[in-house]
Amino acid sequence: MFPLLAQLILIVIASICKGKHENTCNVFPKDQYIEVGSDTKVVCHSSCVPGKISWTLNKRVIDESLSHTINSSHTVLSLRNFTEHSATVLCRSAATEEVLGGTTIRTYSKPSKISCILDYDNQEAGGVPELLTCNWEHQINPSKDINYTVLSASWLHPFQSEICNSRVTTCTSKYKTISDKILLFGDFNITVRAKSADFEAYSETQDFTSYHIWKIVRPKLEVTPRPDSLLVKWTQMDSSTESQCFCQVKYSKAINERTTEWVIDKALNCEDKGEMIIDKVDSCSTYKFAVRCALAEAPWSDWSLEKKVLTKLNMTDVKLRLWRKVAEPLKNGLRTVRAMWTGIPSTCQDTFTYMIKQQKTGENSTQTVCGNATCDVEVNQDAHRITLTVLQNDTLPVEDSVYVPAVGESLPQVTDIQTRNYEGVLLVSWKAPIQPVSGYMIDYTHDGNQFHWMETKYTNVKLIGLLDKKPYNITVTPLLDGRTGHGTQALQICSRVGDPGNVSIVNVEAYDKSAFVSWDVTTQKECSDAVVRYTVFYTAQNGPQLNVTADGKRQYISLKDLTPDTQYHLYVQATARTGSTQSSEWLFITKRFDPRLVTALLVCGSISMVLVLSFGLCCAVQWKKFKDKPVPNPGDSSVAGWSLASHQQPFSIPCESHYDRVYPEGPRRKSTPPLPKGRNPTRDQMEEYTVPDIVPSPDTQNKDPAEPGEFNPSSPGESTALLLLENNQLSPYRSQSSVEAAVQGTGKQSKHVAVKQQEKTGPATVYVTLDMFDHGNRHGREIEAEP
């Protein structure tokens, strides 16, 4: 107090002396660091302004009672029990509120709440502790660098000495020699000094007793399993003291992090070994154990290394739960029964013997040695009882039995099974049978090999702990006293329906203003949800995103109103009730012109070209046939000579007609033309004529040929009709030999002998003009060749 007052007096005197020469205003001292809760004073030099002054602390007006005036130009502000972490004090003119000067006051605290522990650097060693670790609290400005020093004094060294230094609020001192360690026994005190560039503070001196802060080493633990309990032993490593120790044993069943943890306290001499028996543990279960100890009034040691142990099976606690699944009878009438049981944990490492005994009512039983989980046996259509026996060494066996009803046996059966899934849980309900039952057994499986079952007295049950997104088969069987009814199986249901399958775009066929998109969905999970709708999202370059929707049954769509010669980004999203999946992105570019128009033109052009080529080829073939077919000249025919003969020797025509009929001949024959009546031909006049074959008309082929020289008169109408028919179906010309043949025949002087029939040949096409017999007469003559 007195040094601070002397300092203020000197400041005031200096200010007064200086004020004689100049009128200045300011606040002194600047930037103070004071201890929290201490008092301080601030002087305001106000010679630059007349009148009173006022003070503000962090913009709050300070009561005038805290300040007093020394003279007309100096005012002192007294602040008591100052606790602000940092504050700004301003001196103002009371008349004008003008700021005359200011200063910043910061506070610091001294270290407090010191705690120390005697510990070990090596937890496997015992004896005298070798480490002294002290901690404290200090509220300071985090931006300041503080150096801490721990000072200690004991009954052997009454004056404090430095034992460690630190820049944080903890410090450890290591005692290596025996003489140093002796200092730790008995009573000693600790003081912490905090020093920075602006302040230096000392904590209050804290007294300690070594036995109260001695943290002994952690114990060593051993756990031994027994048939019905666990034996826990631990060894205390510290043997340098005969004081009493307190120990804690904690253990828990290793199922999950939320398993209940048990802690048991036990007091013993620190030199003795600890021992404890833990009973009432579950069979074939894993337990975790740890132990710690402490001296009286001292902190706990570290927990020992954790030990895990698997308990043994206690046969007295085994409660078998036997069940069976009965398959449909085979052709030979036998049924396969799968016996399943629980009650013996699968984690048990002991050796067990499982026996299945099947017994038909009123007959002897048969036994089968089985595995450790399931066993299949065969029974006929009669009722049976199956018994499971479990043996372990010399212990008493454990048994359970189940009933297998006969085929067609009158037993109760549930009806109307309803199933529903909700967030991975299956809810099953059914209608009870008319007959009274004692309960129901519900068995369920997702693969037909691994079964789970549970018993209930109600007509509904909740199945939990199922595999995610797996289909389950559920069967409900009523239970009677000592017997079971017939099981009823529900429809298969998934534990939870998942997202739809993966969507993949199959093809995008782009045109100028449209595109055809097709996709496919691959279902990789058994319980994927059905797709409700598909949405195709497509975006042009620098354009908005558009979309079209298709129902879940269609996996294709056409995009319309696209921009030609533009790149588009495309992907397909499949949406179900449970979620949605989308395909990877697909890029395509629309055509500048519609490719279908070019294709249509090419197809039409190709078809037209084929038709033209086909037509030209047909014409060429027909022309070649026409050109290659020989066409005889009627002027070269032997009939041409008949016209001349007719002028000399006219025929006698029985019946005249404007149009004489020409009849086609049969097979080609050699004949002589008939002679005119009243004339007897001479030998020289006898000429041999060769008449070509003439194809008869269809209506005359089956008629008898006319006699030689016989003429058949006909009406003009009939002649015209016959000519028209012959023009359509037969050649309009008569078959005849060429002129050359006739000339050769007349040139020979031969006798007219019986005409020999020529060999038959194929029909030939000939041409005959009606005026070749008479150049002057336009009407033809009816000529009939003899057969």
Q: Could you provide a short overview of the structure?
A:
This protein has 787 residues and is mainly beta. The chain is 11% helix and 40% strand.
Describe the structure.
It is a single chain. With 787 residues, the chain is mainly beta. The protein folds into 7 domains: 2-108, Sandwich (Immunoglobulin-like); 112-212, Immunoglobulins (Immunoglobulin-like); 220-312, Immunoglobulins (Immunoglobulin-like), CATH 2.60.40; 316-494, Sandwich (Immunoglobulin-like); 510-593, Immunoglobulin-like (Sandwich), CATH 2.60.40.10; 599-624; 634-747, no CATH class. Helix content is 11%, strand content 40%. It is built from 6 helices and 50 strands. The strands form 13 sheets. Strands 34, 35, 37, 38, 39 and 40 form a 6-stranded antiparallel beta sheet that branches. A hairpin with a 7-residue loop joins strand 20 (244-253) and strand 21. The longest helix is centred in the C-terminal third of the chain and has 34 residues, at 595-628. The protein starts with a helix and ends in a 40-residue tail after the last helix.
Write the layout of secondary structure elements.
Layout: H1 2-19, E1 25-28, E2 32-35, E3 38-46, E4 53-57, E5 60-61, E6 67-71, E7 74-82, E8 86-93, E9 99-108, E10 112-119, E11 131-137, E12 147-154, E13 161-166, E14 170-174, H2 178-182, E15 187-195, E16 200-202, E17 206-209, E18 220-225, E19 229-235, E20 244-253, E21 261-269, E22 274-279, E23 286-295, E24 307-310, E25 321-326, E26 335-342, E27 353-360, E28 365-370, E29 374-379, E30 384-391, E31 398-404, E32 415-422, E33 425-431, E34 439-445, E35 451-456, E36 460-463, E37 471-480, E38 483-484, E39 488-489, E40 493-494, E41 502-510, E42 515-522, E43 533-540, E44 545-551, E45 556-559, E46 567-575, E47 580-582, E48 586-589, H3 595-628, H4 640-648, E49 669-671, E50 689-691, H5 716-729, H6 739-747
